[in-house]
Amino acid sequence: MDVVEVKNEGLVRDFKITVAADDIEQRVDARLTEVGKTANLPGFRPGKVPQKILKQRFGSAVMGEVLEAAVQDTSQEVLTERGLRPAGQPKIEINSFDEGKDLEYELSIEILPDIGDVDLSGLELERIKVVPTDAEIDDAINRIVQQNRKTKAIDEPRPVEKGDVVVIDFEGKIDGVPFDGGKGDGIRLEVGSEQFIPGFEDQLVGAEIDKEMEVKVAFPDDYGVEDLAGKDAVFDCTVREIHEGVDVTVDDDFAKSLGMENLDALKTAVSEQLGQEYNRLTRERTKRELLDKLAESYDFEVPPRMASEEFDQIWQQIEQAKENDQLDDDDKSKSDEELREQYQEIADRRVRLGLLLSHVGETNNLTVSQEEVNRAIMDQARQMPGQEQMVIDFYRENPQAAASLQAPIFEDKVVDFILEVANVSEREMSPEELNTLAEEEAGAGSDAAGEDKEPAKKKTTKKKAAAKKDEESD
Fold this sequence. Notes:
Layout lengths: L1 E8 L2 E8 L1 H18 L12 H32 L8 E6 L6 E8 L13 E7 L3 H14 L3 E3 L11 E10 L2 E14 L21 E7 L13 E14 L6 H6 L5 H35 L6 H20 L5 H4 L3 H28 L6 H13 L5 H10 L1 H6 L1 H16 L1 E7 L1 H13 L10 H20 L1
Parallel strand pairs: 5-11
Antiparallel strand pairs: 1-2, 2-4, 3-4, 6-10, 7-8, 7-10, 9-10
Helix pairs in contact: 1-2, 3-5, 6-8, 8-12, 9-10
């Protein structure tokens, strides 16, 4: 093998590689010998087929295998001999090859930057702790009351009011023709819960028991059933029963009905849950502060191709925002050239921070186990009540989607590791103070460009899974 380095600029390395015809021929003969051990050709016993016959019968297929293996083996040898760590898939272009002649190809790679030692002990960060107020705890318990409220049939006949639970019969029609899935009998519905098509429940207000009525609605354009999306429909409805809420006393008995020892235990549990929610919010703030400080402290060249791919993803989102008139006011005032420059800087930052976090994780032996991936899949499933098995099946049938969950898990583990090593101070705040701080930071245009984009990808994955479920049910 002959190797010539034709480019060495920054993180880019280009090579021209020549593999001798004799090497290719030896590889072909060796592969044909392997094939011959099991080849079943008329007139020959396995393992006794002459090499010439094997070449006539399998030569073309074997040559393709050999060339692919030769390129893979020799390119890996080039990287290993020179101690190069590629930042992505190398680009390979075959220049020339004919049977009996040398194989010539070009290898272009981008290598990972040499980040060196990362000193995390000097990082100074602030962690905010929010203690829920008594008023918040009471509000949360009141929401629990509403979620668990009981109803009873009304004592005296009256029209339906918002908040009532009604039992209805209905049949939907489009252009006077009933459609599949549009009929229901004895269906319980809380008026105002927005469980049905927008506008449906509002029209039930004022309805009386056993009196037929028409409910006119329009299916949303993005409705899950394509034949119904955007269509106007009329539902023939009859309210059969009206139930109203029963007043609930928030006391020890109510707490016990929820499995708690007493009301104090319920308040403690609610306070802890609210505290966990605040912790998630404040953790994101601490993470942004961490990424900002890492971005300020470490400035190294990023692989151009990686930065370009990241920019392309961002710019695609910008183009979509333009089409939907959803650009930020600040971005609307800028030219495309200014926007490209701005978001290229953001792309560079994201790639740089990604490489830095990856480097910290690798040098400290942080890994993601299959058990952690399985837990992430279950978390995804729990976020889609009623479709849990569909989500699990989606990830089981799509290993690449399951593998994509590793990135945010790995990043969280690296962030947690850094927070353990760094000098982190804690400051208590009330919920109001936290809201004020968040508004001030939003007004100051806090740059969240370094935040990992996996949460967005996860949502996309769940939408794909939901779409797949809708298709199956149609």
